[in-house]
Write a structure and sequence with these properties.
Distance between the termini: 11 Å
Order of helices and strands: EHEHHEHEH
Shape: globular
Structural class: alpha/beta
Strand content: 5-15%
Number of helices: 5
Radius of gyration: 15 Å
Largest sheet: 4 strands, parallel
Strand order of the largest sheet: 3-2-1-4
Amino acid sequence: MTCTTSLPPRSEARQTRSDALVLFGASGDLARKKLLPAVYRLEANGVLGEVPVVGVASSPWDDDELRAYARDSIQRWGRGFDDEVFATLARRLCYVQGDYRHDEVYDQLAARLSGHHCPLVYLAIPPELFDDVICGL
């Protein structure tokens, strides 16, 4: 995969609120212990809004398996748990499975993000995969 990017000068960049959250490495230890509990806290505090939360990883999961993983993670590593708050978050939680080095994962991600144009992307992955993900995006 070849990648070239150019960003606008900082003075030209628009400040726009993100309309989706994408977590690369969603099945990993950092997501389990820190990110998923933090996303839950954002939801509980009313900060997350109605944005979809898309987990991306290579684990052979589907949406329900990610939701079960998130529930367990939040109950184990979070600070409190409310079934209603989690249910609200879980409705917007979905999963994309694939290898970060293959274009198909980005096609699936684009389909999940349909109608959303300013996602916030978090890379909870090994640094050697950063280039693959950035180019894929």
